Fold:
Amino acid sequence: MSTVRFEGIARHFGPVRALLPTDLDIPQGEFLTLLGPSGSGKTTLLNICAGYLEPSAGRLIVDGRDVTAAPPRLRNMGMVFQNYALFPHMTVAENVAYGLKVRNVPRAELSRRVDEALRLVRLEGYGGRAIRQLSGGQQQRVALARAMVIEPAILLMDEPLGALDRQLRKEVQLEIRRLHLARPRTSIYVTHDQEEALVMSDRIAVMRGGRIVQIGSGADLYERPVDTFVARFLGESNLIEGRVEAIADGRARLAVPGLSAPIEGRAAAGLAVGAVASALIRPEAIRAAAGGIEAGVIERVYLGEIVALRLRLDGGHEVWSRRFAGEVPAGDRIAIGWDAGAVSILPPAEAV
Amino acid sequence: MSGAGGTSKGAAAALMAPALLVVAIVFLAPLVRLFAMSFEAKAGPMATYLEVLGDPIYRHVFVNTFVVSATVTVVAIAIAYPTAFALTRIGPAWRTLLFACVLFPLWISVLVRTFSWMLLLERNGPINRALVGSGLIDQPLSLLFNRTGVLIGMVQVLLPYAVLPIYAAVLRIDPALIRASEGLGASRLRTFLSVLLPLSMRGVATAATFVFLLALGFFITPALLGGPASMTLSMLIDSLVNERLDWPLAAAASMVLMVAALIVVGLAGRFVSVRAIAEAHR
Structure:
């Protein structure tokens, strides 16, 4: 278990700036997720941490030691790859034992630790199997065991669920979470899947265009996104564009063309009076309210316990509302409202 | 159309017909004729085989052929492996250049290459002059008309057949495996020995099979660069046909060579599938 500190770490490939100078501190035992679309720099950051990629600038400090120039084999990090990267010519047990053999761990201890690692990922008795005999989910669990058995300072995971189908994804996702809770270990997890990020992470760093846009707990990011990009990337969102009318005491008022009353909400940083901004209203905050804004129901989507409604406000804006099935009124027209406390006024995402 | 399967099978047969016809007329028919001929000696049907397999001189030729082929295979693989490995590790410009160096000899006739070696290897040729001139040796080495000359020439001619399958095998190894190995703490040497080498062994087996089979039946190079003491089976067959005019004996020797080749293919088949050989040459 270790602390990790990125100090001004940057990387460019020729003229392409894959990662802008980035500072990031990860405390001991934290599960941090780098979340972002492809090309956002998240895998670059991970590969720099593992030592597979040299940074163009900056320093990487692990437990107070500068490891920027250390080769991967001296960093003691456990890496889990998207395509598993298991050695196809070795059995399950040989794969898991590889890192221990390299470290010259005595035979008895080695076999005890391999057995324990396989038990942890619930693959007891699979040690003698060939890799190709395993399902994708089992293979990724072997990869997890192989990475964890060396007691790595940091566990690195590069979209480990990316190659699995939906059902297995859920299964391995919960497996990783269970393993982390049983034995917290400093972990960096890369994904573009917001659900994975929310389920597993202590903190999430949302990345875009080679930099970290926002970092915080899942609740921070969902309830207090810094801009429209983060709002769109985490959860469902209704974003209504307008101009900032007034900012005071951490609240802002947004004038929206076509709406008779301005929308009020929490003011994010970076707003200016008169500038373009968007009001974020999460679908679950929109409810029927007598005397509210008149809206026509365009579409009803039944999702089991939830019903999603696509509404066209009389001003012409379209929004989604998600309510429990019992709360949804019948009819083609309803009056809607929302709590001002559930609204955020956000600046537009920076151009990339 | 009655069925897509039937139609495509019919079409496939039609497409392959010219090739099958050629193979049947110019290969299978003579082979059958040769097989029959090998039993047509005046001394009795099995006399040829008894002579080919029993005569110590012919046995010497068999042994020499196998020793030469095996040595060529080992040397060619030893040179080809690092070359193929380097090909997967260098930049595109260097790779193109190195590939050209590997493949260029294939575009030149074996005869031309073999005559070139005769010029290079002769007693007063550039290689001996350079060696004597540099003071490394006092007397010129005899590099021609003996086994040394045959080995040098055959290795050079057959090297591309060793490089290509190994290159294809190394190229197929997922680079993430190397990262995984290094990330788990392995040195470069350890990664090579534990991961890259075992995973490229199929390519090595394919290459070895190829080179060995081609070497077994090689004629021009051993005939021109070798001497009487380093006679190979193909040279023997040639002299049986052209000098002794003993067709049945030549046919029997050919059959023995073919059976030996088939045994090698059969043994190799345990390690290398025919498909792997085809893949290596895509």
